[in-house]
Write a structure and sequence with these properties.
The protein is mainly alpha-helical. It folds into two domains: 189 residues, no CATH class; 136 residues. It is 59% helix and 0% strand. The chain starts with 7 loop residues before the first helix and ends in a 5-residue tail after the last helix.
């Protein structure tokens, strides 16, 4: 049979098709093979999450206070140290428990516990109780109290209340405002002195906190805080490359340091600049280095309150993947991958909350509300 010769043009077309095929294969990861279902907060889920937060915001014990004690006179029960946020095991969990209740009132108007939620928020978010919180945070010995994680969630609560056209919410927002302004000033004093970010996978993570602070600043039109966060984020993270995703997760993480940073920088950089930054920062989705952050974390003991942090990590990764995908151009091949990864992490984590006991229930509802209601994205 005569040998057939391919023209240059046909060779070029076949080469392009081959490269495209390889590229498509290379941009997949086994953990991104599931359905790209959107986050959905149905009535049943909203009610179950509201029950978890209602079940802890007025439960004073067990309690883990973080205040500094300088003498016997400083030893007081949680309800006196934190008149508004004394429940949910620790202060920051109580704050984001209150945030979750506010958020559910806003996005789930048929919430069956709406009356109970409004009642508890009206009891706690009063000028008198917030004044007691402010007194604790204003003490010199407590200058670093709940910095930055608790601060971040307090501002998230302030942002949620601000601008909501609801009579109760306006009253709650006015009551919370002095403490929110105090925390905002705290960030203003702290960030210029922070020489390097804290890249932890737990409460100390800087990027996680700055994303919340920036959303608050924009919500309440605090231009000074907004400019400071943007400037410091660029300085601290703008030159970062090759994030070690293959080191994640640490055994008790509930924050992905790499994805939290990307979730912040999508808020700071415009479209093209963010794409260029992300190209330098995250490894290709086909890379073995990416796989550890792509696959939902294994949680070997749901009830261990520290190992159980990994349930929250799944939810935090989910909202980061979703937010990053929303910030990318629709033509970027990572969009569909990140959406599927968000769905996989969300699905896995939501199935684990019920088995986590109070060690997880006192805080995981807030993370679930955050991801299911599309906050920040």
């Amino acid at each position: 049979m005569p040998r057939r010769h391919l023209s240059r043009e046909r060779c070029a077309v076949l080469l392009i098709l081959l490269v495209a095929s390889c590229t498509r294969r290379d941009t997949t990861t086994p953990c991104a093979q599931g359905a790209d279902e959107p986050a959905r907060l149905d009535d049943s889920r909203a009610a179950s999450l509201a029950a978890l937060s209602l079940g802890c915001v007025e439960r004073e014990y067990p309690n883990k206070p973080a205040v500094v004690l300088e003498g016997d006179s400083d030893v007081r029960p949680p309800r006196q140290l934190s008149p508004a946020f004394f429940g949910c095991f620790d202060w920051h969990s109580s704050v984001h428990g209150h945030w979750a209740l506010v958020r559910l009132l806003r996005v789930a108007p048929t919430l069956p516990q709406a009356g109970a939620v409004r009642a508890v928020l009206s009891r706690h978010l009063t000028p008198q109780r917030i004044a007691g919180e402010l007194a604790t945070f204003s003490a010199a010995r407590n200058k670093t109290l709940e910095r930055p994680y608790g601060w971040a969630w307090l501002l998230r609560l302030g942002a949620e209340l601000h601008g909501w056209n609801d009579a109760d919410a306006r009253r709650w927002a006015a009551a919370l405002s002095p403490l929110a302004r105090h925390v905002a000033r705290g960030f203003g004093e702290y960030l210029p002195r922070l020489g390097a970010p804290v890249r932890d996978g737990t409460h100390a993570n800087t990027a996680f906190a700055l994303a919340h602070a920036l959303d608050y600043a924009r919500a309440v039109a605090d231009r000074e805080l907004e400019q400071l966060v943007v400037t410091r984020a660029r300085a601290l993270y703008g030159g970062d490359t090759d994030c070690p995703t293959h080191f994640e997760p640490s055994g008790e993480d509930f924050i992905s340091p790499c994805l939290a940073e990307a979730d912040l920088m999508r808020r700071v950089l415009d479209g093209r600049a963010f794409v260029a930054w992300l190209d330098r920062f995250l490894p290709p989705t086909s890379s073995p280095r990416f796989r550890p952050v792509a696959c939902p974390p294994e949680v070997r003991d749901l009830k261990d309150p520290r190992i159980g942090h990994l349930i929250g990590l799944g939810l935090q990764r989910a909202w980061c993947f979703a937010g990053i995908a929303a910030a990318l151009p629709a033509s970027d091949g990572r969009v569909s991958i990140f959406r599927r990864l968000a769905a996989a992490h969300r699905r896995s984590a939501l199935q684990q909350i019920a088995g986590s006991g109070y060690g997880g229930a006192h805080w995981l509802a807030s993370f679930a509300v955050y991801v299911l209601s599309g906050v920040g994205s």
